[in-house]
Specification:
Blueprint lengths: L1 H10 L5 H30 L4 H19 L8 H22 L9 H22 L10 H35 L3 H6 L12 H4 L1 H9 L2 H32 L5 H6 L9 H15 L5 H24 L4 H9 L4 H12 L1 H17 L2 H6 L8 H4 L10 H21 L1 H10 L5
Helix pairs in contact: 2-3, 2-5, 2-6, 3-4, 3-5, 4-5, 6-19, 9-19, 10-13, 10-16, 13-16, 14-15, 16-19, 16-20
């Protein structure tokens, strides 16, 4: 009885033809976007031209599936979404089977079995995202504006993501090529996975061993970590003093924290080069450990000062009443409450010290103490194959990318925590 009432209730829903048309249109647009990206990947990575047939097949399949899955007036949205997914999968599988005799036999296991489900799952999820919390029975201006903004966001995100990802992929693909492949077809961006791992990663082996990049990694890690430690210690003490202590010149110091950034680094490098030469600090890592904290400390002070201003003073005063010293309050109360800001500042300082080139290029002359950015200069030569240069660029870029994505939530939280006082 309950099932019959539920079916009757569903059949009595006044579905709007315009709403169904909009739903199908969103499904078609979502699939168009996914298929366009899929086709580019298939053509670039594997050399398989699948743009035209799969474009129309996926477009038709998603439009048909969207017409079923986008009746979102029901509370249980998993059933229509599952039906849409199943229909799209069935149509795609038939399309693949039918198109293989027509010249699609080159589609291998990856593109036929793995990439296809990923494509229609992405299209279905993108369609569900575009139509979430929308009542298609009542078409009004706000709903159309919401749909337009969501589509614009998806297209813009895909466009800018492609711009960001493509250079890095080009760098990785070029680093995995042999010299023969680089000379035969420099424009081909695919990766030959049929060769052995030794041949595939020969560029990385040469860069790490022959060009001593393993030593450069150690030097850069040492310089970056020590710079982070020195900068954080000085920035915490300085920011705490500016926000909590009263002393002459406090306001002037607070306003002039970023004064050093008025001077370009190229203006400072020449007098520093002369001074460090006379002091015997040029061509040494301690010389960099003096310059790097000096250049990163102002921003670190500024960021931590803004964060400390949001921390309640009552907790620190309560700690001092209980007998804790000023340093004890900083260690036991202020620092634990400031972990997001400390993580963001530490990540910012680490990235600057890891990627810094100008001072390392001017001050370091001995190859055994080169940092990664300084060692990259040795790969920029006509005698060095281009794939070695790309392998070195990947080695420089990859660690900082991993660290950034790992601490991304702390970086965002630390940068925005001091935005509102109170």
């Amino acid at each position: 009885m309950a099932v019959a009432q539920d079916i009757a209730k569903r059949q009595s829903l006044p579905y709007s033809p315009v709403g169904l048309l909009i739903a199908a249109l969103i499904g078609a647009l979502a699939t168009t976007l996914v298929v366009a990206l899929w086709s580019i990947l298939a053509t670039v990575l594997a050399g398989i031209n699948t743009s035209i047939p799969l474009f129309w097949a996926l477009l038709t399949g998603a439009a048909l599936g969207a017409g079923i899955g986008l009746l979102r007036q029901e509370r249980n949205t998993s059933l229509p979404a599952t039906l849409a997914l199943g229909l799209t999968a069935a149509i795609l599988w038939l399309v693949f089977t039918a198109l293989k005799p027509l010249g699609m036999a080159a589609v291998d296991i990856f593109w036929g079995v793995i990439a296809t489900p990923i494509s229609f799952v992405a299209a279905a999820q993108l369609t569900r995202y575009g139509l979430r919390e929308l009542n298609l029975n009542k078409i009004h201006r706000d709903m159309l504006e919401t749909l337009f903004l969501r589509m614009l966001r998806a297209v813009g995100f895909s466009f800018f993501l492609s711009i960001v990802v493509f250079p890095f992929y080009f760098m990785v693909a070029s680093s995995l090529k042999s010299r023969v492949e680089m000379l035969q077809d420099p424009t081909f961006l695919g990766i030959n996975l049929q060769q052995s791992l030794a041949d595939l990663f020969v560029g990385y082996r040469e860069v790490l061993v022959t060009f001593s990049f393993w030593r450069y990694i150690g030097n850069s890690s040492f310089v970056a970590i020590v710079t982070v430690i020195i900068t954080l210690i000085l920035a915490v003490l300085g920011a705490y003093a500016v926000t909590r202590l009263q002393f002459p010149g406090r306001n002037l110091l607070s306003r002039s924290i970023l004064l050093i950034y008025m001077f370009p680094a190229i203006v400072l490098v020449i007098p520093l080069y002369s001074i460090f030469t006379q002091l015997g600090l040029r061509d040494t890592l301690p010389g960099l450990l003096i310059v790097y904290p000096a250049t990163t400390l102002p921003v670190a002070l500024y960021m931590l000062r803004s964060y400390f201003q949001t921390l309640p003073k009552d907790l620190e005063e309560a700690g001092m009443i209980d007998g804790s010293s000023r340093l004890g309050v900083i260690w036991r109360i202020t620092l634990p409450l400031s972990l997001p800001a400390l993580a963001s500042v530490g990540l910012y300082v680490f990235m600057i010290a890891w990627n810094e080139f100008l001072f390392a290029f001017m001050f370091l002359d001995t190859p055994t103490i080169f940092t990664l950015s300084r060692g990259m200069v040795g790969l920029n030569s006509q005698e060095v194959p281009r794939q070695f240069l790309m392998a070195g660029a990947v080695i420089v870029t990859l660690p900082i990318m991993v660290i950034f994505f790992w601490f991304e939530k702390y970086l965002v939280g630390g940068l925005t925590a001091g935005g509102v006082k109170g």
